Amino acid sequence: MMKHCIGFFCWILLFIFTSCSSHDRVDLPIIDYIKLDSTNLKVEVLSSEMDVPWNMLFGSDGFLWVTEQGGTIKKIDPNTGKSKVLLQIADVYRYRTLGLLSMVLHPDLENNPYAYVHYTKKEQDSIFSLLVRYEIGLDTLIKPEVLLRIPGNTGHNGSRLLISRDHKMLWATGDAHHGEWAQDTTRLNGKVLRLNLDGSIPDDNPFVDSYVWSYGFRNIQGMTFSDSGMLYTSEHGDAIEDEINLIRKGENYGWPVIEGFHDTEQERSYATQHHTSEPLHSWTPVIAPAGLSFYTGTKIPEWKNSLLLATLKTQSLRVMKLSAGGQQIVDEQILFESRYGRLRAIAVSPHGDLFLATSNRDWNPSKGFPREGDDRILKISSTTEVHGIPIRPVTVNKESGHINRGKDGKQLFTLYCASCHKEDGSGVVGIFPPLVGASQVSDSKSRLLDILMNGLSGKITVKGQVYDQQMPAFSFLKDEEIQQIVNYIRKEFGNNTDSISLSEVKAKRNK
């Protein structure tokens, strides 16, 4: 009798276990397959209809923790996609790239249940960036405590947060549209800051009684540690020179005097005087690098010792193989260009799966986006099966990664102007002015050349609408290239005005 009872009891346990396991297994929608050298990958939709996921990371609880720009913090089951809202921060100021941005969790949640977040806040006419510590309660975040508050602006607020092996907080800040602050070590903008986890200043920081760890940055958008503890950042350049940097204690990375490598006479002179550090890699035209992660898993051996970079402008995943010592990028491959739209956040799970978040409902969507289901979190993992025609990575020509100039006005416009003013010249309402029917394009040749060569700062009225978005200077372009862009703008978009001669461009430059 006892034998039959034990058998029945085991059958019940097996039934319960099987039922629970099958309940936990969820078939996520597969939208693509990838073929690497020896590994097949599948791309699944983990979560959809999201509000611009900005930051993703894995907690020690096994969940994917996500910030959304509007102020929501969620955690998501990486196997089922089931999500739970933990908090909606009420005083987040969202505008363009402002809002709830980065987050990191204490590495010892069992004994220190804290989440650290960075978001922007507006008080009267002033904008601030806040670093806030929350206590993790039962499925919520409680007891907010502001650890640090720095000036913010309508752009260039960074940011990413990390916690190092020695339990120090790293906070990458933007220059808040004040490039000169990046070189001023008494200010906290345009820096990588280093804090104790209670918000105090570590004794071993390079500048006495200062949070500053390294300086000379424009607008860092990604930050990650390698498995050996080396610190890397991805950074937005101006009109040129997006960068990947290896961050070292106390070092100066040159902005705003130096962009990218030390390759002009002025930059080399400044570098000699100020001992600045060059990036590991730079891109011109810019690609708008965003989230950055070091691949620590074993499921995708082709990506071992690689930096994985999400990009906004080129809407791609960049896989950058590092040298054995981690001080060089020796290979670069591109996946998904323009396939899923803008990619902003990236995370690698403890199991070696990759998670990417699209950013198609943000302030500057690309042509054809947002699509149904945006914004989405995509899960990329190994598989034994491949159906249909798989995606294959494209290897970047090392020589073309730095300068890749267009051949005519349309190509140059697409490379340097279309991400803001759009391919049809329509701009973005309230943010980037249209070129269609704009007096700045059609009226004065000299005025248009001034704008293109010297950039803009401050408010400008276009077709009765006030805009306040800084425009970089394009004086780095050759005279012939400036002529081609200007004439393309003046002939396209219904403008149909007279051409500018090369001699007019040269005369403007020599003034």
Please render the helix and strand layout as text.
Elements: H1 2-24, E1 30-35, E2 40-47, E3 53-58, E4 64-68, E5 72-76, E6 83-88, E7 100-105, E8 114-123, E9 126-136, E10 141-151, E11 160-163, E12 168-172, E13 191-196, E14 212-215, E15 220-225, E16 231-235, E17 242-247, H2 265-274, E18 281-283, E19 289-294, E20 306-311, E21 317-322, E22 329-335, E23 343-348, E24 354-358, E25 377-382, E26 394-395, H3 409-416, H4 418-421, H5 439-442, H6 445-454, E27 460-462, E28 465-467, H7 479-491, H8 502-509
Antiparallel strand pairs: 1-2, 2-25, 3-4, 4-5, 5-6, 7-8, 8-9, 9-10, 11-12, 12-13, 13-14, 15-16, 16-17, 17-18, 19-20, 20-21, 21-22, 22-26, 23-24, 24-25, 27-28
Helix pairs in contact: 3-7, 6-8, 7-8
Backbone shape:
globular
Tally the helices.
8
Cα-atom radius of gyration: 25 Å
Helix content: 10-25%
Mean pLDDT: 91
Q: Regions with pLDDT < 50 over 5+ consecutive residues? A: 1-23, 400-404
Number of strands: 28
Structural class by secondary-structure content: alpha+beta
Describe the sheet with the most strands.
5 strands, antiparallel
First CA to last CA: what distance?
104 Å
Percent in strands: 25-35%
Q: Numbering strands along the chain, what is their spatial order in the largest sheet?
A: 1-2-25-24-23
Commentary on this structure:
- By secondary structure, this protein is of the alpha+beta class.
- It is built from eight helices and 28 strands.
- It has helices at 2-24, 265-274, 409-416, 418-421, 439-442, 445-454, 479-491, 502-509; strands at residues 30-35, 40-47, 53-58, 64-68, 72-76, 83-88, 100-105, 114-123, 126-136, 141-151, 160-163, 168-172, 191-196, 212-215, 220-225, 231-235, 242-247, 281-283, 289-294, 306-311, 317-322, 329-335, 343-348, 354-358, 377-382, 394-395, 460-462, 465-467.
- It has a five-stranded antiparallel sheet with strand order 1-2-25-24-23, with no helix packed on it. A five-stranded antiparallel sheet has the order 19-20-21-22-26, with no helix packed on it.
- The longest helix has 23 residues, at 2-24.
- The termini are far apart.
